Amino acid sequence: MNTLVINCSPVRNGATAEIVHIVSECLKHKFKVKSICIDDFEFGFCKGCRSCHSTGKCIQHDDIDAIMKEYEWADIIVSVAPSYWADIPGQFKAFIDRCTPWCNTHESHAELPGEKKGYTIALRTGPGMPECERVIGSIEHFYGHLEIVSCGSLGLCSVECKEDAAGRIAEITEFCDRIVRKALEDVLSEQIADMKVNTVAVDEKAEHPIYFDKTEKDNSKWLELLTGALKESETFEIHCWNEEKEWMEVALQYGTLKASDWKYGKIITGNVTPEFMDMLLNMPKPLDIELDNKMTPFFNVFLNNGFQSSHYGTEIYRNEKDFFLEDEVQ
Ligand SMILES: Cc1cc2nc3c(=O)[nH]c(=O)nc-3n(C[C@H](O)[C@H](O)[C@H](O)COP(=O)(O)O)c2cc1C
């Protein structure tokens, strides 16, 4: 994954630059990372001539072309912006204005290639989060019109200088973990969707998944589905991400590691015993539900009768002839 980290401040060695540095260091172990500062480029203000509304091109030719080349290269874009008078710095606003040829509200507009994911970090000296949210809102509005999918944001208040930013490393690192995790989950979801050969046979009827979205208050429906499925199965597979050591160890108490070329995680396989059922059905609903409304801490639980609890139980695929809960669940 190519990741572009942008310092939206004109200050090359201030608090924003420090955050860009921390983010780049965190992400470079997983992705190809480039960082740029808006002040590295020279470009004119948008003249509001609107010729790009019909041509999809700007009449001015300057460093905007170079910045857009970096956007084209990136799969993930992380914009780091300080609050200047309660919004993004003027230099970055001037850049956004010049992106009008890419704005999707005009019939004829330029397009960035591929599906890009956008993240935003806002910082400010003052103490209130609403101002950070305003900065984030401005950048996410820009992302939306360039069809960059906003996937997450972080607001950091009380950050005046470089040293303040360095003191917030834990929050920034945690945010980077979320970026990595989302990217890996997307890759894995694609792989699982393509998976044809597995020890778990997938019934064709299992193509209609049940989704548990953020409106689901508890995991009682998930438990009900799982209880029925467990009674009809003999073996299980559990997939855990490498960093989910705690849950891997729990699963390993009921099974063994399966050989797999999945480099980002481990697969534990075993028999569906009363003890395994007891563990799975009595585990409390996870509290970290910001990204996914997790029904279980296990990323995937597959049973040999075709039942699949995927993406922390938020997607259920099952052999419909075995279960009769559809009315209650959908
Ligand atoms: C021109 C200017 C305007 C600012 N306006 C605000 C503001 O409205 N609210 C706020 O909380 N901080 C404001 N700040 C403080 C910055 O958000 C803060 O110092 C940030 O860490 C600056 O990062 P930088 O030095 O990397 O640009 C302003 C700073 C400058 C230079």
Shape estimate: elongated
Distance between the termini: 36 Å
**Uncertain spans, ≥5 residues at pLDDT below 50?**
199-206, 320-330
Sheet having the most strands: 7 strands, antiparallel
Separate helix tally: 11
| CATH fold field value of the largest domain | Rossmann fold
CATH top level assignment of the largest domain: Alpha Beta
The H-and-E topology, N to C, reads as: EHEHHEHEHEHHEHEHEEHEEEH
Query: What is the total number of structural domains?
Result: 2
CATH architecture of the largest domain: 3-Layer(aba) Sandwich
The overall strand count is 12
> Please, what is the CATH homologous superfamily of the largest domain?
Flavodoxin domain
Give the overall average pLDDT: 90
Helix content: 25-40%
Binned strand content: 15-25%
Which structural class matches the secondary elements?
alpha/beta
Round the Cα radius of gyration to an integer and report it.
24 Å
What binds here, in terms of ligands, is:
flavin mononucleotide
- Largest sheet, spatial ordering of strands: 6-12-11-10-7-9-8
